[in-house]
Amino acid sequence: MAKLYNSKYYHRDLSWLRFNHRVLQEAADTSNPLYERIKFLAIFSSNLDEFFKVRVSDIRQIKTIEKPLRKKLITKPNKVLKEIKKQVNLQQEQFGHIFTSEIVPELKKHNIHLIGQKDFSATQKEIAKTFYTEHLKDKIEVNRYPNSVENKVFVKNEVLYLTAQLSDNEFAVINIPTEVPRFFTFPKHNGKHYITFIDDILKYCLRQSPKMEQDITFYSIKTSRDAELYIEDELSGNLADKIKNSLDNRNTGQATRMLVDQRMPSQFQDVLKRALDVYNTDIIQGGVYHNFKDFFGFPNPTNKSLSLDALPPLPHPVLSKCNSVLAEIEKKDQLLHYPYQSFEPLIRLLEEAANDAQVTTIKMTIYRAAKESRLNDAIVTAAKNGKKVIVFIEVKARFDEQNNLKWGQIFEDHGAQVIYSFPDIKIHSKILYIEKSSDKGLKRYGYIATGNFNEKTAKLYTDFGLMTAHKKITKDLNKVFLVLEQKVLVPKTKRLLVSPYTTRIGFSELVQNEITLARTGKPASITLKMNSLEDEDMIKYLYRASNAGVKINLLIRGICSLVPGIKGQSENIHVTSVIDRFLEHGRVYIFGQDDDASVYIGSADWMTRNLSHRIEVVTPILDADHKKTIRELIDIQLSDTVKARIIDAQQKNEYVARGANGVQSQVATYNYFKKATV
């Protein structure tokens, strides 16, 4: 691994694997309730699937670039892929151990038995046969191929298959149906609950077929394919239509991984590699079962609580009690923090605007829309009520393209103006703008957030949202929308930082201000919370700040290419990462200390794509109360001694020392807001 990162920059993809290792640590943590550990196994599996479909695909595309240019883009791709495979195999081994040696025995202690087809009782065998006949038989295809077949067998992206060597000359490939739940629960017997994979019902019943030998061994396989759409000639034609027509390409893209049962004989692996057109570098050794993301739906047939106690969203102390959200925003900026606080005020804001006769205009961006949404329904209502509604929909939001296109059509059908993606740039900002006429003239309102307009993720992701009627901020916000409407080329903003125009420059100046303070002997500090830190130029600025004596605290959930703790480079930089029940998603940027600190929130990580290739919006927090709240919340996270890991130069993911009275920041944050509602 030493050649793939150096003392200045840790390779982004290897750092991402270290993030997924932190997820795996949560599955291994016996202090977590049993079903919480199972959930983290599912998250780990889902994350890894996307990594192979996207990042590994990107690295392989780089292999097609001419060598002189390739050297400027990335370390030799073959070496990167080799190291990725090595690290993934190690994590898969740990994953398998956690599941088979810890989770399965722990389930048994609660009288939940996860059994394979060899463990079926006589009664369970008959039940399995009935279920197979009624629910599975018509949904499978048993395809037989000669061992000598080459490049003629196609398996779908992310679909599970059983394979078996039928003879020295023939093998079979059988799909595992996705239309039925992955798990089947047998009737309770002697106080014990029995659950099986439908994979095992298939294995048992297929062996009973006269066309199959009963001693045949079935092995699971799953192929991940290139998920990038690679839209050609983006500068011409309708990009939304092109994306719609290209979505099926994901099902037929080049294989980037074939996950196989590690018990599969190497000779049979060779047969499959030839038949499926995959290579040694594509093969990842897994367990008997794949697609552990299906464990999000693992049944709990007992009445026992084997999950964490719920932390239901709390009512906002101001907006939950008011008659008019718009009126409260006029009085004072309002700050929301999901999922600790309810998403309801934002829905109410849009519903109120949709039905207020004096509201004339609503503009907003949508990056990932919820499938069913009161918020989206409010947009439809506003359009039906004759208001000027402009919705910018990012149809390049990976894996949400189809749902975003669906809602775009609904909005258009009801009279809204829908603007779809621009070529070569993503609209990642989460912004809303409202205009209202009054006797005193035009009133403007804005909402700027770190997370999506999505009710579902607002219960799972930690995010901030600012509602404001501040004249300069709302005026800036309208300028951003004028750019999206292609009415102006550059938003000349006074308060907002907007990528790709001013965000990089603005943050660089804020870092430089702290460097200047430190060099004059004054206290200087930088505190940043982000999903990922990868941009080399911004990392260089942080190194300069560290060398100048600026105290830097970083909360980085995912990728961290910055290498901390190196003398003469980053000894003043401390990095931690919190992985817990909620996904840490908010971006917070604090420059300075105490009441004089400059505090910002926004949608931009410090990645090159966010600073230079996306439309991002970052807003200052001007209200003194809200600045204080954000600083206190960040301090809580920095004091975490239960779920925080230290990101050191090797990214070993060692936990912060817990001490006698551990601080679990997400629970402490919930209690912080709970006190505010009393």
Radius of gyration: 27 Å
Number of domains: 4
What's the overall geometry? globular
Proportion of helical residues: 25-40%
CATH superfamily of the largest domain: Endonuclease Chain A
Q: What distance separates the N and C termini? A: 52 Å
* The top level CATH class name of the largest domain: Alpha Beta
Strand content: 15-25%
Structural class: alpha/beta
Biggest sheet architecture: 10 strands, mixed
Average per-residue pLDDT, rounded, comes to: 90
Q: Let me know the number of strands.
A: 27
Poorly predicted residue ranges: 229-237
CATH architecture descriptor text of the largest domain: 2-Layer Sandwich
Helical segment tally?
A: 18
Q: Do you know the CATH topology of the largest domain?
A: Endonuclease, Chain A
Report on this structure.
It holds the Pfam family PP_kinase_N. This is Polyphosphate kinase. Residues 124-298 form the Polyphosphate kinase middle domain. With 678 residues, this protein is an alpha/beta fold. It has four domains: 1-110, Polyphosphate kinase N-terminal domain (Methane Monooxygenase Hydroxylase, Chain G, domain 1, Up-down Bundle), CATH 1.20.58; 139-180 and 198-300, Polyphosphate kinase middle domain (polyphosphate kinase like, 2-Layer Sandwich), CATH 3.30.1840.10; 325-495, Endonuclease Chain A (Endonuclease, Chain A, 2-Layer Sandwich), CATH 3.30.870; 499-677, Endonuclease, Chain A. 37% of the residues lie in helices and 22% in strands. The strands form four sheets. Strands 14, 18, 19, 20, 21, 23, 24, 25, 26 and 27 form a ten-stranded mixed β-sheet that branches. α1 runs parallel beside α4 (77-109). The radius of gyration is 27 Å and the shape is globular. Residues 229-237 have low confidence and may be disordered.
